[in-house]
Amino acid sequence: MNANDQASYAGYRALMLVLFGRSGQPPAWRAQAACAGQDTEEFFDPKRIEDVKDGCAGCPVLAECRSDQLTWETSGQGSRRYYASGIVAGLSGPERKRLHYPRTPDRKDVA
Ligand code: SF4
């Protein structure tokens, strides 16, 4: 398995866990998800990023999905960096990573 495959696999696991839960039972909000029944591989296709993000932007459970995903990524269930791939809750892996690891402000930004 090469690095890209590993990243996709990790992202897939992350998406499955956030959307379906650890027990295999979906969270209550899942029934209202815009991506219900959608091919999850789209969430890892670089050519579909904007389409997937558009879908998430109109999703009625975006806030719940984002909260669960970000919580899960910081819950100690593995490396955040490892799982930070794919679009989940309208955020790319690098965007989620920046939320977890906010950059130190540039010197010019410091008052
Ligand atoms: S915000 Fe996006 S990933 Fe989350 S449930 Fe809605 S469509 Fe799916």
UniProtKB/TrEMBL annotation:
Entries under Pfam families matching the protein: Whib
Annotated ranges, domain 4Fe-4S Wbl-type: 34-98
Source taxon at top rank: Bacteria
InterPro entries, sorted: 4FE4S_WBL
Protein's recorded name: WhiB family transcriptional regulator
